[in-house]
Amino acid sequence: ATPTALMVGTGRGAQLGILIKGPEVLESTRRVDTVVLDKTGTVTTGRMTLQDVYVTEDADEKEVLRLAGAVEHASEHPVARAVAAGAEERSEMGVPPAEGWGRAGVPLPSASAFENVPGLGVRGTVEGHEVLVGRARLLEEAGVTLPDELAALKTRAEEDGRTAVAVAWDGVARGVLTVADAVKETSAEAVRELRALGLTPVLLTGDNRTVAASVARRVGIDDACVHAEVLPRDKVEVIKRLQAEGRTVAMVGDGVNDAAALATADLGLAMGTGTDAAIEAGDLTLVRGDLRVAADAIRLSRKTLSTIK
Ligand code: ADP
Ligand code: MG
């Protein structure tokens, strides 16, 4: 490929809403046969809202929301934002809004000893209670079991495509909160376009298996191509395993959690709507965060490189 033709390709990319790090990127784009898609924020909007609050018989709904919201307040994770905002909005204390308070005017208590456990959840101390919010595995690792009735409600929500997180404090599970996030309107079409280009779409997420399968079904990704409950540090391993099978892998992601996988993939595509860490790690940026543009990028590189021949 001559440098001039590649420059034309990058210019056309900018018009389509694709920022290309360097002209040589188009070369690797052409050989891609597998496209790994992150779920939250890539296939889905990533704008989650609090849906259900399930609590055990002896726990108080408002208390569960208040303590969970207090710990999540310190986290930037989409699940955390939904829980903290929902806790502030739903509190019924009826106090008029004041500076620095939540939208409904209700302050959440502050958390100390906050700790973010990547891919699992958060923990912190609120009003003297040791609070955990996250996956069932986070609780299990702390020796806390989810009672059957909460586990059943959690599974039902997940079958429905909602992400469910457990809340525990002082070593006892107290409730389950569910948050939902919509599949982007353009995702199913994007998956169809990627398939039409002969690429195999794969879904990669730290979220629950049941939720992941539900999203995959809605956008047209095969069940066998879903990798769920993958810890952030293991996302790279999934990419490497696909490469070891002889595939040339593109990865599309938006999160801090995706940065290493984006850098490991043969081609990393970052959502322009995502984190700086993802954008820095990617070879290409899809400026508007529209997944269909990933297909445009592949098409553009194939065309650019064939006109040069
Ligand atoms: P994804 O790969 O979809 O972007 P993550 O790896 O960030 O997901 O998170 C995986 C799962 O870990 C979430 O679906 C959630 O169940 C749990 N989790 C992560 N962070 C938090 C948090 N701050 N609060 C509650 N749960 C969390
Ligand atoms: Mg994401």
Automatic annotation (TrEMBL):
Localization (cell): Cell membrane
Superkingdom of origin: Bacteria
Family stated for the protein in its record: Belongs to the cation transport ATPase (P-type) (TC 3.A.3) family. Type IB subfamily.
Write down what this protein is called.
Answer: Cation-transporting P-type ATPase B
